[in-house]
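Researcher: Next entry in the queue.
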Amino acid sequence: MLIIGHKGSNDLVPGNTIEAIKRALEFKVDMIEVDIRVTKDNVAILSHDEFITSNGLKLKISDSTYKDLLSSYQELTTLEDALKVSKHTKILLDIKPGEKIEPIMRVIASILKNQPEKILIASFDFKLLQNIHNKYPEINLAVTERWSGVRAGHRARNLGTKILIMNQLWLWSGFISSLKGSGYQLYAYTLNNPNKALKWKKYGLAGVITDCPDRF
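Model: Structure for this entry, 216 residues:
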C-alpha cells in the first residue's frame, strides 16, 4: 500500500509548499500529492483554492501574475520548484478543473522524457483528462471521483487507466475488494487513520492519500 503525502504534509505545515514537501520526504512517503493551478502569465503553481488569501488580500490566481501572488504569499511554490525538491519521489499532480494544461506540460516535459514514471496526473475534470490523454497519450493518468464507482470506472476505461482516487468516506471493504478483483488500483483520500488503512489494505486498497504521513 502506497503512502501519499496530501499537499506534501498538510497536517504538519502549510500544504502545497516547499516545506510541506520536504517534511513528507522526511517520512519517506511513496508519493507526494500537490494541487496545480495556472497564473495569468502561465506559471504553474501549487494551490488548492482558486484564490490566494494573505495579509488581508484575496487574489484570484487566474487573474493575477506570479509576481503579484508571490508578493502577497511568500510561501507560494511553483510546480518547477516542487519537482526539483521532490527529487526522485513520484508526484501526483491534481490539476484543478478548468485549468490550462499547456503551461503544466511545459514544466514536466523533460521529466516525461527521462523519468516518465515520476509523474501521475489526476483531476475531477474528465474533459481535462481527456484532453491530456489525446495530446499526451504517454502520460499516466488517474481518475478522481467523490463517490460513484460506476462513473469512476467508466471514465477510467475511456482513458485507458486502472488508477482510481476516491473519497474515503464512501468506501467500504466489499467495494474495495471488488475493484481490486477488477484490476483497479484504488487510492483513498483523505485518510488519516492508520488503523482503517491497514484494515482496507487487506481488501486490496492500493494507496492512502494522507495529511499525516508521520502517522504512517
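Model: Residues 6 and 210 are 5 Å apart (CA to CA).
Researcher: Noted, moving on.
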